[in-house]
Amino acid sequence: EVQLVESGGGVAQAGGSLTLSCVASGFTFSTSDMIWARQAPGKGLEWVSGITSFGDTYYGTSMLGRCTISRDNAKNMLYLQMNNLKPEDTAIYYCARAMDQERGPGTQVTVSS
Predict the structure, then answer these.
(1) Percent of the chain residues past pLDDT 90, beyond the cut
(2) Residues 20 and 79 sit within 8 Å (Cβ to Cβ)
């Protein structure tokens, strides 16, 4: 059974930073492309960033230049470091397996102005 559990969310001030983590189990993490997505209140799911099993990284326009995705295959961990946070970054953030969009319960990020 695929399990993804995000953590690291919280309340941050505008301009601040947060690092999200996601622990994966139930599948071969090291050979899986992974993504971070987010859903703001009243809006649809938005892709934020992706990383291939080889470590190639991709970023959406919403957080381009303000976030860094990384992974630790030895620990089955996915990370998203977010900097210069803005109130519009307020959302539930999900990590997901790219191949089927299987995702965790999410972690809430709230950015105050």
Answers:
(1) 98
(2) yes
| pLDDT the model gives residue 43 | 96
Q: How far apart are the C-alpha atoms of 96 and 38, rounded to whole Å?
A: 10
3 state SS for the chain: CCEEEEECCEEEECCCCEEEEEEEECCCHHHCCEEEEEECCCCCEEEEEEECCCCCEEECCCCCCCEEEEEECCCCEEEEEECCCCHHHCEEEEEEECCCCCECCCEEEEEEC
Please tell me the distance from the alpha carbon of residue 71 to that of residue 53, in angstroms, as a whole number: 9
Cβ neighbour number for residue 22 with a 10 Å cutoff? 26
Q: How many other β-carbons are positioned within 10 Å of the β-carbon of residue 25?
A: 11
Beta bridge partners of 93: 38, 107
